[in-house]
Design brief:
single chain; 68% helix; elongated
Amino acid sequence: MTTLLVHPPPANFSASHALLGRLYLEHRAFLRRLLLVQAVPLGDVEDVLQEVFITVWRRLSCLVTPEQARPWLALIGLNHARNHRRLVRCEREVLVGCAEELPEQEDGSSPEMHLHAMYGMFRLKRFLEKIGPRLRAAVIPFLEGQSITEIATSLDIKAKAVEGRLRLARKRLEMLAPA
């Protein structure tokens, strides 16, 4: 048990402040272990833990009794861990996944052009992941510069089938394109 120094509370100290302090002291170690188990990197655990307690503070009125706080806190912690993993995955995919495929920055190109190229590569990769393997098998060689006849020969299908797959891929790309 932790010994706390007794100081008089400030004038604007309320029962909700006391409850939040109690939850923090009693459940901080539990939430920290939960975040580590949920694959949040060690360097990010304290930041995510802070976000958890910000959410707890905002939703403190939803807590029925302090004795039933652990499952409620665990759910908030799991949601924040999931959101953090998604955010990290997207950042890593943009920064690491596209870096090796971009051409070297020339003297005349600006950083904005380089950033737009990276974003375009990221969107192309996301699009190729979303379409099925049959469409992808026709789209990738087409983007690499192969003719429709060459693609049809390599896939052992008719040229009209390749044209249909490319047309369908264009329609899906138009649906995903921002207005």
